[in-house]
Amino acid sequence: MKNNKFIPTTLNTIMVLVPIIILIYFIFRYYVDAPFLDQWSLVPLLEKYCRNNLSINDLWAQHNEHRIFFPQLVMLLMAGATGWNIGFEVGINILLAVCLLIVIALQTHKIKDGHWLLPAISILIFSLVQWENWLWGWQLQIFLNVLAVTAGLFLLSNDPPKRRNFIGALLLGIVASYSFANGILYWPIGFAILLAGNYKKYNYVILWGIAGIMSIVLYFYGYHSISSHPSMLVLFRSPIEYLKYFFAYLGGALGKPNAILIGMGGLFIWSICIVFLKLNQKFEKKTLLPFIALGLYPIGSALLTGIGRTGFGYNQALASRYTTISNLFWISILFFLFIIIKSGKTKYQTYISLFVFSIILTLNLQASFHYAGMFKVWKEWFEPAKKELVSLKNQGFLNRLCPYEPNLITERAPILKKYKLSVFRIGR
């Protein structure tokens, strides 16, 4: 019996690890150890950090629409310890993704044969579609946000409710909110979980409401709009464009072609699965609630991001950076399809669910194969710029590192040189 169990378990583990190994190969072959775009905004904080006069207000300051207190803190500490080696930021992103897989694995383990779902989840979590986030250490903010949101929502929706789970969910909500702007959605989703779950004591609901309101009010204290970004009134002026943005955001994880239709189909499937599983008394609320909450976060993120970004055009929703969030939507769908397949109520339902499950994975794998080429493009584009950063002579190459504000490079590169950071560190 032991051998019979060992073989499938080993096979399952290998299937989970393959996407991770492939990703690590691509990252460490093609990442470039040089600051890019928003990373140049970290240089003044690095200078203060090196001078030992960094303040809480410096970390709290708004960056675009975000307050990235925790990601900046992590990046500054790593930069101080490594001489700002971007490779360590990239490595942290991989580590956060592995932690996300572990968190989801602990939840799927609660259903029978749930471990067989993990290879499919691993394919989505470590998809090459997210090439921008994998190669750009600055995107640590998104990985940290997604991990905190997922872990917090799972803690909150588990049954029976426990005080330590509630406290843990509160703390993770703070990390989520001050890592990426979409994190403010965590609080209303958590509130809905409390009302739908088994938290009979309303002191939990009241405490959550107070914590959520305080967190959101604090987030917007001193907040200022970004003049270079389009008006948020686009929702009312161009509702069709807004809907296109919304569905493209959800569908982008499975590739750019037909992303709008894929997003529409995904939302339909997600809704049908929930209705079917809710009507089937075999499936308890405690099994479904964590993954309903997981799906609500990317749906809410698509709605929220669309308000501020539809003015850029719906194609902006297809940016690879967003797919780390929209992946959660498809993971939620895969979970629902898996338990329908496992229930085996009718062959008709099983075959349809298995077909949809296979289509989702096929589209994601196809998109990953397509975007694998972007890793090489990244290397070829930024490697010459990295070399010129040392001499600061060829402005054409240097502009690649900060195309919107190229003057920042000439202003802030001397700071890096003074403190021996990035390309100027000893033994680089």
UniProtKB/TrEMBL annotation:
<feature type="transmembrane region" description="Helical">
    <location>
        <begin position="234"/>
        <end position="253"/>
    </location>
</feature>
<feature type="transmembrane region" description="Helical">
    <location>
        <begin position="169"/>
        <end position="196"/>
    </location>
</feature>
<feature type="transmembrane region" description="Helical">
    <location>
        <begin position="83"/>
        <end position="104"/>
    </location>
</feature>
<feature type="transmembrane region" description="Helical">
    <location>
        <begin position="352"/>
        <end position="372"/>
    </location>
</feature>
<keyword id="KW-0472">Membrane</keyword>
<protein>
    <recommendedName>
        <fullName>Glycosyltransferase RgtA/B/C/D-like domain-containing protein</fullName>
    </recommendedName>
</protein>
<feature type="transmembrane region" description="Helical">
    <location>
        <begin position="12"/>
        <end position="32"/>
    </location>
</feature>
<feature type="transmembrane region" description="Helical">
    <location>
        <begin position="259"/>
        <end position="277"/>
    </location>
</feature>
<feature type="transmembrane region" description="Helical">
    <location>
        <begin position="138"/>
        <end position="157"/>
    </location>
</feature>
<feature type="transmembrane region" description="Helical">
    <location>
        <begin position="319"/>
        <end position="340"/>
    </location>
</feature>
<feature type="transmembrane region" description="Helical">
    <location>
        <begin position="202"/>
        <end position="222"/>
    </location>
</feature>
<feature type="transmembrane region" description="Helical">
    <location>
        <begin position="289"/>
        <end position="307"/>
    </location>
</feature>
<keyword id="KW-0812">Transmembrane</keyword>
<keyword id="KW-1133">Transmembrane helix</keyword>
<feature type="transmembrane region" description="Helical">
    <location>
        <begin position="116"/>
        <end position="132"/>
    </location>
</feature>
